[in-house]
Design goal:
globular, 2 helices, 8 strands, alpha+beta, binds zinc ion, single chain, two-stranded antiparallel ribbon
């Protein structure tokens, strides 16, 4: 996908039509027939000349994905930010990732808790993660 959007912080990808940085509050959650906004966490993995963004509903899988990705010799940086994922039907589904400035820092108590929580909520047979009770 290509875009000429001036709000985009990086080039569009096969996943995202737009990736925007949001100053202040994220847009409200929305669940309409042709317009959905959900909240969660965006993870950026970056390396030599590239950056890949993905979205997770929950922090534990996002944190685990980021740390595992950083273990790769081709990944030099990670970023974990609170985010919103918008899908809006405009003749086709337009997917926008809205990334806030609220980050989870490596080594923080929030990160360590998320990493400890992930293994307790994942089902290895289905690869589905649910918040452990
Ligand atoms: Zn854009």
């Amino acid at each position: 996908m290509t875009t000429t959007c001036k709000q985009c912080i990086t080039q569009a990808s096969p996943v995202w039509h737009h990736i925007h940085r949001v100053e202040g509050a994220l847009p409200r959650r929305k669940s309409e027939e042709d317009w959905h906004i959900s909240h969660g966490w965006a993870v950026e993995l970056s390396g030599e000349g590239f950056a890949v963004w993905t979205f997770f509903s929950d922090l534990p899988p996002a944190a685990t994905f980021a740390i595992a990705g950083r273990s790769s010799q081709t990944i030099h940086g990670i970023d974990i930010c609170r985010a919103a994922f918008e899908v809006r039907f405009l003749g086709y589904d337009v997917r926008t990732l809205m990334v806030s400035n609220e980050r989870v820092n490596r080594g923080s108590a929030q990160m360590l808790e998320a990493l400890a929580t992930y293994p307790r909520g994942v089902d290895p047979s289905t690869v589905v993660w649910r918040q452990p009770t």
